[in-house]
Amino acid sequence: MNKELTCNQVSALISFYIKGKLNPKLKEYVDLHLAKCPMCRKKINDLNNILGKYQNSTPKNQIEKEEETLGYEFKNRLSAYVDNELNSRENIMMKKMTISNPTARKELESMYRFQKAIGNAYNKTKNDFKYDYSKEILHKLQDNKEYTTNYFYKLMILFTALLITIIGGFLYLYF
Prior knowledge:
The protein has helices spanning 7-19, 24-36, 38-57, 60-82, 88-100, 102-128, 133-174. By secondary structure, it is mostly helical. It has 3 domains: 1-57, no CATH class; 65-130; 135-175. The protein is rod-shaped, with a radius of gyration of 37 Å. The relative contact order is 0.06.
């Protein structure tokens, strides 16, 4: 990772930075940027002031419930995230949760390992299974086609013989 972050990158990480949920290396990069950028420092100070007022007025039980709900939503959307079934807003939210929360990261990594294990098991089973049903079905269809064709020719010959006999009988009676 480039050691110098842009203002946009820092803005995306501000909430995680303030909550202290960035990994140490990423926090170090944000700190380096903040040392050089007065605009980003001002944003963080303003947010800290707002959050300080909010935390004093919001009961801790409510904050814990919000974090619990966030974890519940993460677990519910994890499978959809891995399968790329989320819209872009939900996808970004899942990425932010994964970046900031080590537990969420472990959960995501275990989901990827599980997905890979299932894929490997499927491929192994597919490769180990030697009997090819598709060839057997095609063979039966071709045999059935030959049977139908042979049956058609036999009926045609019988019909022609019957027609010749009938015409021959009329010719015999009238001549």
